[in-house]
Amino acid sequence: MVSSTEYGSHTWELLLTVDHQHEGVEKEHLLQVTGDLHVGGLMLKLVEQMKIAQDWSDYAFWWEQKKCWLLKTHWTLDKCGVQADAKLIFTTQHKMLRLRLPNMKTVRLKVSFSSMVFKAVSDICKMLNIRRSEELSLLRQSEGTLKKKKKKDKNSKEPATEDILNLCNSPVSSGLPANPGLYSKTMTPVYDPVSGSPASSTITWFSEGSSSEQNCSILALSHPTCSPEMLAEMYQPRTLADKAKLNAGWLDSSRSLMEQGVQEEDQLLLRFKYYTFFDLNPKYDAVRINQIYEQARWAILLEEIDCTEEEMLIFAALQAYHVSKLSLSSETQDSTCESEVDEVEAALSNLEVTLEGGNKSNILEDITDIPKLADNLKLVRPKKLALKAIKTYWFVFRDTSISYFKNKETAQGEPIEKLNLKGCEVVPDVNVAAKKFGIKLLIPVADGMNEVYLRCDNEDQYARWMAACVLASKGRTMADSSYQPEVQKILSFLQMKNWTMCSQAASEPENVDLKPECFVSPRYTKKFKSKQLTARILEAHQNVSQMSLVEAKLRFIQAWQSLPEFGLSYYIVRFKGSKKDDVLGVSYNRLIRIDMATGDPITTWRFSNMKQWNVNWEIRQVAIEFDQNVSIAFTCLSADCKIIHEYIGGYIFLSTRSKDHNETLDEELFHKLTGGQE
């Protein structure tokens, strides 16, 4: 018999590469290992052989061929599937990454390349003092959106180092645990002495001294200095297909950065992915509100979302206001006076500016009474050959339906028609200057969408009916506590549009140091002369000049939310059984099938009616089943189908949030709804 030592042992050679910065020290090491050696033992064996005294706690093995981390240190090599041909790299889990924020500033910070992106974004937001990290994600700029830049300037280089805010010394960036009290509701806010904005955690997280104040100001304050030349160099989508390119590069939240090919010092975009901004609170959300405002501002300037000329001037006036406000360096916000306000009192006052709701003091008032609206409105029905039939009827709005009659006297009988608005699309058709207050309803029917236009006589009537239509489309009635706040929000937006000519501002626009090209999209720069734009922006400015800085940003965000296309992320898809491509719009509460050629919505499906959804990973097809035996299936052509799957699951996850949960996230539920692999 032959002994085991003569025949050969069970050990085998494994080549390991160490990613370290020590000069003159070998990076490759050959170790004798066995299959029952666990990963932690392999680390120990490697470190002992290197004989380099340093902290190795952030190091882990990266398996190059399989693109995965070996993070379960108690697993054996056999269980991991590691054999002699495996290329294992012993490297740091936290690496430097460049992030371009919504305000177009680039920050450089250490991020975990081994954690799932969902967790990595959470850590990033702690560094930047942004609450509700689940609303954000990381976006890789797609090649299609970079082509224009390259054509404009082939010699363009990376941004200069002085333009990059370096945050690599913050605690989370170094892999240390975050302060658990960072997002506490009961913490006492500390205001930044320069900007007057809440900066309780940001200043303490950055280094001490004046530089910390500067860093905080960059993140919490807006510095709109874009020029027409700068806008011209940036990608501007012209069609729905172009808009689809903007959403193609979202990273998978259930996988790590390294697994998705992101390398150290790469640049990614940090953006608000989900357009449900929960519990916006000016007292703690200075950075968050500013970054949402900036994302909205750039979306409007680059025409990623359509708006009317009237609306563009409102947005321009709010931006111009920021410039004039920021030019007064000695002026601080009104919010500095609030530092002594009691926490409970502050929480109550913040309800008025929180975008998610309003005053709920009348919830129990008249709960047995079913609210209804009844009024004379004009009904406009589009006909062939571009002719429209306009006629006045007596309309009654009850529950989630509109009925109309020939006149008020016949309202007790059968209506001419009853329109169920649940699941419909509600589009404002307003021109305040021309006294036009219209509501466009796209009501789902068996073969598509039925178009109905309603015309109101004045602002008050429009606000009441528009608010009722918006709630009904979501399956809610006027008895809902959000009805009155919705009416007030619409009236507030109309009031901003309803400016009157200011003789002084209009007669002396040349005396105002205002560059209108910086505040409107290129389309309007071409349409009007500079003096004309300045005068019109100053007209609109009269209605917003008395707002505080934070209020102006919140009004800008609210106006953005009021646009018909707000919150829609577009993808090019091919529906099962269809011979042509369509555009799928994904919103916080619905999916919309849109004709790619005309841009008209074809069908709407509400998440509230969805029973289940899944992905056939072999053919990359998303299948969704709704109530009433309605089912759809489609393949995504402009992006990976996982992105749409994650969008749907993400929005459903966000709808489960509550202020009562102490702001802790159920990460397991998020991955269960969005992962798709389990």
TrEMBL record:
<dbReference type="GO" id="GO:0007229">
    <property type="term" value="P:integrin-mediated signaling pathway"/>
</dbReference>
<dbReference type="InterPro" id="IPR040790">
    <property type="entry name" value="Kindlin_2_N"/>
</dbReference>
<comment type="similarity">
    <text>Belongs to the kindlin family.</text>
</comment>
<dbReference type="GO" id="GO:0005925">
    <property type="term" value="C:focal adhesion"/>
</dbReference>
<feature type="domain" description="PH">
    <location>
        <begin position="378"/>
        <end position="474"/>
    </location>
</feature>
<dbReference type="Pfam" id="PF00373">
    <property type="entry name" value="FERM_M"/>
</dbReference>
<protein>
    <submittedName>
        <fullName>FERM1 protein</fullName>
    </submittedName>
</protein>
<dbReference type="GO" id="GO:0005178">
    <property type="term" value="F:integrin binding"/>
</dbReference>
<dbReference type="InterPro" id="IPR019749">
    <property type="entry name" value="Band_41_domain"/>
</dbReference>
<keyword id="KW-0130">Cell adhesion</keyword>
<dbReference type="InterPro" id="IPR035963">
    <property type="entry name" value="FERM_2"/>
</dbReference>
<dbReference type="GO" id="GO:0007160">
    <property type="term" value="P:cell-matrix adhesion"/>
</dbReference>
<dbReference type="InterPro" id="IPR037843">
    <property type="entry name" value="Kindlin/fermitin"/>
</dbReference>
<dbReference type="Pfam" id="PF18124">
    <property type="entry name" value="Kindlin_2_N"/>
</dbReference>
<dbReference type="InterPro" id="IPR019748">
    <property type="entry name" value="FERM_central"/>
</dbReference>
<dbReference type="InterPro" id="IPR001849">
    <property type="entry name" value="PH_domain"/>
</dbReference>
<dbReference type="InterPro" id="IPR037837">
    <property type="entry name" value="PH_Kindlin/fermitin"/>
</dbReference>
<dbReference type="InterPro" id="IPR011993">
    <property type="entry name" value="PH-like_dom_sf"/>
</dbReference>
